[in-house]
Amino acid sequence: MALDLVPLWAAILALSVFMYVLLDGFDLGVAMLFPFRRDADDRERMIGSIAPVWDFNETWLVLGGGAMLAVFPLAFAIVIPAMYFPILVMLLGLVFRGVAFEFREVHGARQWFWDTGFVVGSFAATYAQGVILGNFIQGFEVEGRHFVGTSWDWVSPFPLLVGLGLVFAYLLQGACWLVLKTEADLQQWSRTVARRTLWGVLAFIALISIWTPITEPRIAERWFSWPHLLYFSPVPLLTIAVALLLLRALRRGNELLPFLCSFALFFLAFTGLVISLWPYIAPPSITLWDAAASPKALAFLMVGTLLLLPVLLLYVAWSYWVFRGKVRSDIGYHA
User: Fold this and answer.
1) Sign of torsion, CA 264 233 244 204?
2) 278 phi and psi, to 5 degrees?
3) How far is CA 156 from CA 51, 162, 217, 224, 283, in A?
4) What mean pLDDT comes out for the span 206-222?
5) 3-state DSSP call for residue 322?
6) Which of 29-38, 110-119, 176-185 shows the lowest mean pLDDT across its residues?
7) Fewer C-beta within 10 Å: the chain N or C terminus?
8) Quick check: is 301 in a domain?
9) The pLDDT of residue 334
10) Residue 19's domain spans which residues?
């Protein structure tokens, strides 16, 4: 009997998406917080805190997109025409964010222009990612194995709402990152921002959690039928517990714990998403097995991926270890 590699590939794809959201989320959040600090030294510290890692964080997006194209080609063929414009906005935003990041340091450059591009590109990429996520939850119009909707199906209240919710989530991530990496007034300001954005994140989590089961019967059945209700109830309970722990950590002056709690909130939200969508990769009709490539192709691609993933994970760990400690505007990092 041949080994079914589809669940393993689904786990790899989920890991890629989760790592991207987790890691690129905080640097996009820092960029969106950038215009709210006018002090030049504070701005340099904000930029310096993400400078060593921001470009590598996007590697996970490439891995996730490549995995969907090669391993789940049917899903790729459905998602791309359905989400063409949000994906285009996301990629342009990431490109312009990267260009602005480098050009703002060029001698004689109009720094105000590139700083504006840095912020606008980051916001556009974040909001587009949220719209894409919302459309995945909402589902795609598919007949047989073909997408029959339009490239404007994402223009509806739910995806647009999720886009705004992701902006708040990334702002929380960015604020908690600055609490960890900075000191003095900037750190205290970041604590205040983290507390305020946390309430926004919790409000959007609650709103989305109410909206989805009301409008999507398949999700309501997954969460509220017995015994699923018993199995999945720890997710919302843990979300509340982690949020309370995050607030407590911010009040007590902890530096690392708020960032870890923000990670935990993302993990719990991602877990809830997986519970709601499994086993569909293009809901509500295309499952992972429907969209998967041939078993031989899955096995061939798995060989290289199993060699690549440990290298990526080790590089992530090493990079963040090397650039640990606080960042200062005059000398960069110091332990």
Assistant:
1) positive
2) -55, 135
3) 36, 11, 18, 26, 17
4) 84
5) helix
6) 110-119
7) N
8) yes
9) 45
10) 6-334
The mean pLDDT value for 296-300 works out to: 90
Q: Return all residues near 131 (Cβ < 8 A) that are at least 6 apart.
A: 83, 86, 154, 159, 160, 162, 163
**Residue 77, amino acid:** A
Mean pLDDT, the chain, integer: 87
Question: Residues 6 or more apart from 24 whose CB is under 8 A from it?
Answer: 54, 57, 58, 60, 61
Q: How far apart are CA 252 and CA 247, in angstroms?
A: 9
Looking at per-residue pLDDT, the higher value among 307 and 229 belongs to: 307
> What is the value of pTM for the model shown?
0.91
Mean pLDDT computed over 181-208: 91
Question: Do 87 and 135 touch, CB atoms closer than 8 A?
Answer: no
Q: Do the Cβ atoms of 153 and 125 come closer than 8 Å?
A: no
pLDDT of residue 92: 93
Q: Which residues contact 257 (CB under 8 A, 6 or more apart)?
A: 245, 246, 249
Q: How many domains does the chain have?
A: 1
Q: How far apart are CA 166 and CA 174, in angstroms?
A: 12
Structure tokens belonging to residue 104: 């703002």
Residue 125 has pLDDT above 80, yes or no: yes
pLDDT-derived band at 178 (thresholds 50, 70, 90) equals: very high
Amino acid symbol at 144: G
Residue where the block lists tokens 């689904």:
10
1 in any annotated domain = no
Place of tokens 């007590």: 252
3-state secondary structure at position 326: strand
In a domain, 320, yes or no: yes
Q: For residue 262, is it within any domain? A: yes
| Amino acid identity at 205 | I
